[in-house]
Design goal:
496 residues, alpha/beta, globular, 32% helix
Length: 496
């Protein structure tokens, strides 16, 4: 098999030095070049905002940011389905007084909801709140371990979005657009900084909860950026990456010879066409070869001491959020730029017990409580929290009203999607400790102070990674694109 691949590669390489190749392909290419100069802005092979091509054949070569960065890595914890801020962080005693009363018409007037119809009942908090730490942050009894870490985080209590369906809202939160085709934030970071570890991907994705996000793998895609910058999905169960082992009958030397032969042809292709996707192909072949040795080691949590397993509550050999939190620490420790965790199962409409506010949310919260707290503590004890930005949140929030899908009461208590106010938090890498910014009204329906948009979240993450979000651009379809589109402001109020 290997000999056949090498033979085919040699034949392909020989074509580049033949007269027939020149007459057949190069002359045709002159016409394509002329057409490309006329189309100009439609050139999909343009590079950075300056139009410069990469100086190296390695698109993941480490690069300097715009200014000194506070963060070397990002761990982004996304709770797919949108956790209820009213049962976790946004304490509203006035809402409890309105429990089971009909919602005032003034609140509903002119508003759109995903499922609420007619006049729903108000739903008081289904958790017990208390204040914690020197910051006196309100946290519910759903998160007893996290309540001990509140002095290390900054809360954003008035985050807003304009998308109330899961797929578009998740796309917006991770790519800056509700439409398909834009690069994810992890791709932007890797495009801007490259990778510090040539044996591992710069952008790694870990999922739990049994399903991927509603928006699918596009939330970690590279969009119009070269595909080398897309997230690499790894697994905490079975082989960490699909097809990472060599097929039967192929040893490491044979694998290396095959990849070397293929990439020699790819380099000739790049010299001929200057297509950055060819560089991606070269880099991905080489990285895949290196990952066969490096990934199984870093993705193995069995070698961690017992006290670490107790701290995180890990379940080796299973797909679990706790395992992924521990893996996230190991990955940033090895120099991975961006680690994205997606945990599915937070869509608490009340359609069943596992998706209810009073039972399902409590159980999901307990699944993440210990691992997230352990992650923050572990990073802190290892001196990594100062250079690792940790972000937690969903794609939108939940309503103060009880969901009444099609005007009917649900079998269990549930809340509908809500875009006007929800809570996120950040920690580490220059984020103010024990901070809080933003405030909602007395029932948690609308933001009244410190409103934060999705692009503001993006701008702040990029700021901590050393980027001016307005200058990290990529030329595509005739104009420079950026993660924050035409908006975004850094949230200075939570920066230390």
């Amino acid at each position: 098999m290997s000999e056949k691949i090498i033979h085919e590669a040699n034949e392909r390489a020989a074509k580049y030095f033949s007269r027939r190749h020149f007459l057949q392909d190069c002359i045709t290419g002159l016409g394509a070049t002329a057409l490309g100069s006329l189309l100009g802005g439609c050139n999909i092979f343009s590079g950075s905002g300056s139009g410069e091509m990469p100086q190296s054949l390695n698109p993941l070569e480490p690069r300097a940011p715009h200014f000194p960065a506070r963060a070397k890595s990002v761990i982004y914890l996304h709770m797919a389905g949108a956790p209820s801020q009213l049962e976790l962080f946004d304490y509203k005693p006035e809402l409890q007084k309105l429990h089971n009363q009909l919602c005032p018409p003034s609140i509903l007037e002119g508003k759109k909801f995903a499922f609420i119809r007619g006049v729903p009942k108000m739903l008081g908090p289904q958790a017990v709140f208390s204040q914690h730490g020197e910051s006196r942050a309100w946290v519910s009894d759903h998160l007893p371990h996290f309540s001990k870490m509140v002095d290390d985080v900054s809360f954003l209590k008035a985050v807003q979005t304009d998308q109330f369906n899961h797929g578009p809202a998740q796309l917006f939160m991770h790519t800056g657009s509700a439409r398909l085709g834009r690069p994810s934030i992890g791709s932007w970071v890797t495009y801007g900084l490259g990778s510090e570890n040539s044996n591992l991907p710069g952008f790694v994705v870990l999922t739990s909860g049994g399903k991927t996000p509603d928006a699918g793998k596009s939330v970690w895609g590279s969009g119009f950026l070269p595909s080398v910058y897309q997230g690499v999905q790894c697994r905490s169960k079975g082989d960490p990456v699909l097809y990472i082992t060599d097929p039967e009958g192929m040893d490491r030397d044979m694998r290396y010879q095959s990849i070397h032969a293929i990439n020699e042809v790819n380099k000739l292709e790049y010299e001929a066409f200057q297509d950055p996707e060819i560089l991606s192909r070269i880099s991905q072949y080489e990285l895949a070869y290196k990952m066969q040795i490096s990934v199984p080691g870093v993705m193995d949590i069995n070698d961690e001491p017992e006290y670490i397993h107790q701290l995180y509550g890990t379940q080796p050999g299973k797909e679990a959020f706790a395992n992924n939190c521990l893996l996230a620490r190991k990955l940033v420790e090895k120099g991975v730029r961006f680690v994205q965790l997606f945990d599915w199962g937070w869509d608490t409409h009340g359609t069943g017990e596992d998706l209810s506010i009073d039972y399902g949310l409590r159980n999901k919260s307990r699944e993440i409580d210990k691992p997230i707290s352990a992650l923050l503590l572990d990073l802190k004890q290892r001196g990594l929290l100062d250079e690792t930005l940790v972000v937690w949140g969903g794609e939108f929030g939940r309503t103060p009203m009880q969901e009444n899908r099609d005007g009917k009461e649900m079998p269990y208590l549930g809340r509908d999607h809500h875009v006007e106010a929800f809570t996120m938090w950040m920690a580490g890498a220059g984020i103010r400790k024990g901070g809080s910014w933003g405030e909602t009204d007395e029932i948690g329906f609308a933001a009244v102070k410190g409103k934060v948009a999705v692009h503001d979240i993006h701008a702040t993450i990029l700021q901590q990674m050393g980027f001016d979000h307005e200058k990290l651009t990529y030329q595509f379809q005739g104009r420079p694109f950026r993660l924050t589109d035409v908006g975004g402001h850094v949230i200075h109020e939570i920066l230390g």
